[in-house]
Amino acid sequence: LMRVACDASTGLPVGEPKVFVDHRKSMGYVDGSVVDRDGVLWNAVWGGKVVKAYAPDGALLREIPMPVTQPSCPAFVGAKADRLAVTSAWKGKDDKQRKLDPQAGMTFLLD
Fold first, then answer.
1. Is 31 one of the catalytic residues?
2. Whole-model pTM?
3. What is the set of domains in the chain, with CATH numbers?
4. Which residue among 7, 31, 57, 95 is the active-site one?
């Protein structure tokens, strides 16, 4: 995962990207991410069966196991944006793999 400084008035990048989290030795691949109001980055790990939460300094705060192998994108939902919805996918799975991962393709709502 990379990070880049942005201009507060335009939202445009103002520097070179820097490593935020080095995921190369972890299972799966980084996929969709969202940042909460506290600056915590929530990342779905495709092939990793997990959503990971990282502090603004890149420290791992939390891992949420998922019942699917390919969680794809987290998003905060609800009137207070205090619930985490996580999509998943069955892309690339054959019929046998889909039977082993029956919830693939569903969206999950986490409290």
1. yes
2. 0.90
3. 28-110 (2.40.10)
4. 31
